[in-house]
Amino acid sequence: MQRMKPISILLLGLLLAPLAAQALDTPTGFDTSGVDFYLPQSATAGRASLDDLATYTKSLQDVCTTFFANSTAAEDLDIDVAVRPGQESRVWLVSLVKPPADERFANLRQQLAAVPPPPVHDGPIALSIHGVIAGGNDQPPTKPGAPPQMPDDWKTVYIKTRNSKPVTFDDMINMVWDGPVPLETKPIADYLGIGVIIIITVISIVGYRRRNP
């Protein structure tokens, strides 16, 4: 069997070196760039133990670390979690990448929702974990130093109620808890009014045709 010449081995090494370096430089996995509370820290501390919240946040981060362990698709992802009395939690995922993160990472949402939340009292609390997947894509939903970016459901509540009395944080969380809030809704009286108009129109047309066969 003919031995490979040293020069051939050297050339092969030079060809493979950039590929190996590129593989080593390709970021993977999940990191956290920051954590914010939606309420001021003093208000949050009045509703839950900050130590308990720190432990809870670490548990949520551990779930994300495992879920994205081998991910190479770069993305910035906010994980928004609300907890209300009764140790109930609700999770929203916010990203500028389409389709919506709530749809793409439905399994992650289920795993995060399964993490036991800490006890809270006197109203809900909410936090936002600013996640970086595979190094991020320089499109964070929340810019550094800015308030956390609200999920679309929360924004809808503010748009829907902007012409009425101001909505408190507690009211907003309760309104979005069971699912998306329709942006526009019509009172049932509007639909009844439309139905009456249709019935009157039909009766008028039938009566006209009978008088003018």
What is the number of domains? 2
What is the global morphology?
Answer: globular
Rounded to the nearest angstrom, the radius of gyration is 27 Å
- Portion in beta strands: 15-25%
Order of helices and strands: HEHHEEHHEHHH
Level of helix content?
40-55%
CA-to-CA gap between the ends?
105 Å
Structure overview:
The protein has helices at residues 6-25, 41-45, 50-67, 101-104, 106-113, 152-160, 169-176, 188-211; strands at residues 30-37, 75-84, 88-94, 125-133. Residues 9-14, 17-23 and 184-210 have low confidence and may be disordered. Strand 2 (75-84) and strand 3 form a beta hairpin. Strands 1-4-2-3 form a four-stranded antiparallel beta sheet, covered by helices on one side. It contains eight helices and four strands. The protein has two domains: 27-143, no CATH class; 150-196, no CATH class. It is α+β, with helices and mostly antiparallel strands. The protein is globular, with a radius of gyration of 27 Å.
Task: Please give a handful of descriptors for the protein shown.
213 residues; 2 domains; four-stranded antiparallel β-sheet; 45% helix
Compact overview of the structure:
The chain has 213 residues and is an alpha+beta fold.
